[in-house]
């Protein structure tokens, strides 16, 4: 589930700047019967969930993007734009053993600055090709966050 809002919906000489807000939600959970021992970190009590144990898992994250674009080159046929903004990604992940208090769960909110490049081209008066590339990277101590290379 997600939404996308923009103040610049078509190629026009009237707009040299535009702001973009988007939100994407990915919330998943599951249940499984273990075929291997699952070790737990010491914080929730340590130990392991043994083979044959039933576990519930959760993996939730949202991507919230707020970005501002400026048109570098623009006419009635194309628009080349440069942007900057922020990605905010609240995440929650965890595993619990069914029928017990054994739970290992973590939550984090990761803010990542973003720089982007976009290109819009009018193929016909009613068809517009839109392309965007956003790159983000953040390094704190030994932890790094970036868009995967690939």
Describe the structure.
The protein has strands at residues 2-6, 17-33, 38-39, 48-49, 54-74, 78-97, 103-122, 128-140, 143-146. Helix content is 0%, strand content 69%. It has no helices and nine strands. A hairpin with a 3-residue loop joins strand 5 and strand 6. The protein is mainly beta and 150 residues long. It has a seven-stranded antiparallel beta sheet with strand order 1-2-5-6-7-8-9, with no helix packed on it. A two-stranded antiparallel sheet has the order 3-4. It has one domain (2-146): Porin, CATH 2.40.160.
TL;DR?
The protein is an all-beta fold.
Fraction of residues in β-strands: over 45%
N-C termini distance: 25 Å
Beta strands, count: 9
Instruction: Please give the count of helices.
Output: 0
Q: Main β-sheet: number of strands, strand sense, barrel status? A: 7 strands, antiparallel
Summarize the helix and strand pattern as letters: EEEEEEEEE
Q: Which regions are unreliable across 5 or more consecutive residues at pLDDT < 50? A: 1-13
Which strands sit side by side, in order, in the main sheet?
A: 1-2-5-6-7-8-9
Helical content stands at under 10%
Shape: elongated
Keywords, please?
Porin; single chain; two-stranded antiparallel ribbon; 150 residues; mainly beta
């Amino acid at each position: 589930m997600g939404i996308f809002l923009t103040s610049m919906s078509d190629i026009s000489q009237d707009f040299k700047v535009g702001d973009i807000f988007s939100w994407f939600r990915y919330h998943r959970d599951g249940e499984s019967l273990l075929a291997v021992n699952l070790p737990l970190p010491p914080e929730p009590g340590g130990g392991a969930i043994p083979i044959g144990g039933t576990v519930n898992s959760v993996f939730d994250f949202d991507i919230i993007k707020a970005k501002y674009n400026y048109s570098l080159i623009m006419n009635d046929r194309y628009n080349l734009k440069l942007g900057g903004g922020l990605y905010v990604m609240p995440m929650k992940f965890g595993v619990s053993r069914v029928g017990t208090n054994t739970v290992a769960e973590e939550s984090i909110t990761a803010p990542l600055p973003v720089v982007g490049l976009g290109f819009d081209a009018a193929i016909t008066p009613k068809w517009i090709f839109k392309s965007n590339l956003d790159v983000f990277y953040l390094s704190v101590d030994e932890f790094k966050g970036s868009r995967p290379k690939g």
